[in-house]
Amino acid sequence: MSTVLEPRSKSMPPHVAPTAPAGVRSDWSRAEVDALFALPFMDLVFRAASVHRAHCDPNQVQVSTLLSIKTGACPEDCAYCPQSARYDTGLKAEKLMPLAEVVAKAKLAQASGATRFCMGAAWRAPKDKEIAQVAAMVREVKSLGLETCCTLGMLSKPQADALKDAGLDYYNHNLDTGASHYGDIITTRTYQDRLDTLAAVREAGMKVCCGGIVGMGETTAQRAELLHTLATMAVHPESVPVNELVAVPGTPLADAAKLDPFDFVRTIAVARILMPRAHVRLSAGRATMDDALQALCFLAGANSIFYGEKLLTTGNPDTAADQALFARLGIRAEGVFEERVETCAGHDDHPQAEPGHAAR
Ligand code: SAM
Ligand code: DTB
Ligand code: SF4
Fold it and tell me: With 51 labelled, which of 74, 116, 133, 249 sits at a CA distance of 20 to 30 A?
């Protein structure tokens, strides 16, 4: 069943939804978000699972594979990141990967079952020459039949346009934490810088992948602040990665207090309730999560993962373990560019939605 849309006003920019699909709101108050976080755990997970079922196929999970196409030596000071040149994490810096190597990795990812290929670079903001090089990668990866995603740092509008023209489907640019906590984590850019890039990505007509990291010493109120910012965007991000901090020795957050796993699940559950049609990704952190905790995340509304032995520079469960987990839980991997039947995406014309997908 598709959502009936109001005719689009000629004066409306292409990325603005004339009407949101039923049940999708961008007018959440902060008090409502705080109240969700304050619910008893069982009530919260039950509500999130109910929202998930109403909008998505609860037994279908999207699988993306990450590749670091340019590693380390980043000038930024993000306190969580092993790729910052400011911290001694033992990471070997690498220049931009040659095109043929990227395509070979994308083919391997596709052969193991990934439907989206995400290329990440440790840049503050790419130069135009680098955008041209990445655009060539996007064209090749897209021609394999994979969905494409990039995360390259801050973009200007012309750079976003160039990536869109090359066939880039998603741009990942995380807000990472609540605005009030941002200055404790990163000093080399502002929250507004992030919002500006997100606006450029939207205006270029790409889908937005934007989320954050849990476990960086933030309060529950600051988690609510981040999700409130995402859920009150005129159009929700189509993809919302929820990362658990991977505490890497040498980074300022190496000794951050271990997160209560239930607080991680709560964050997923609140994201699912606030953004019912988004793909909420159980992102970094799975390498140290057991199967039961991951199943709880899926129950609470997570419906996307990073798949493949490596994230950017740190480990991820191996593909055999993920295939076994999916089989034990009866989870199907979401197909790419297929007609979607009543799942998260809803109507193809709607900017809140992703292209049609159906279970394999
Ligand atoms: N340099 C670009 C940028 O910062 O936008 C793109 C790459 S950056 C590594 C992409 C995202 O990875 C960050 O925004 C952050 O959310 C996530 N990330 C990096 N290090 C992490 C860690 N140790 N634990 C969890 N997530 C991490
Ligand atoms: C996102 O939200 N998480 C991914 C992806 N987007 C780029 C990155 C996780 C990185 C974890 C640490 C590492 O492997 O370097
Ligand atoms: Fe650089 Fe991105 Fe890491 Fe920050 S998160 S240090 S911008 S690679």
Answer: 116
The alpha carbon of 5 and the centre of ligand 1 are apart by a number of angstroms equal to 36
Q: What is the pTM of this model?
A: 0.89
Task: Decide which of 3.40.1360.10, 1.20.120.450, 3.40.1080.10, 3.20.20.70 is the CATH code for 34-333.
Answer: 3.20.20.70
3-state secondary structure 267-326: HHHHHHHHCCCCEEEECCCHHHCCHHHHHHHHHCCCCEEECCCECCCCECCCHHHHHHHH
Task: Per residue of the chain (360 residues), give pLDDT as tens.
Answer: 232 222 233 334 444 444 667 788 999 999 999 999 999 999 999 999 999 999 999 999 999 999 999 999 999 999 999 999 999 999 999 999 999 999 999 999 998 889 999 999 999 999 999 999 999 999 999 999 999 999 999 999 999 999 999 999 999 999 999 999 999 999 999 999 999 999 999 999 999 999 999 999 999 999 999 999 999 999 999 999 999 999 999 999 999 999 999 999 999 999 999 999 999 999 999 999 999 999 999 999 999 999 999 999 999 999 999 999 999 999 998 875 443 434 455 433 334 433 333 222
Residues with CB under 6 A from ligand 1: 80-81, 83, 120, 122-123, 151, 153, 173-174, 176, 213, 243, 245-246, 248, 284, 312
50 CA → ligand 1 middle, Å: 31
Query: Which residues have a Cβ under 8 Å from the Cβ of 84 and sit 6 or more positions away?
Result: 74, 75, 76, 77, 78, 251
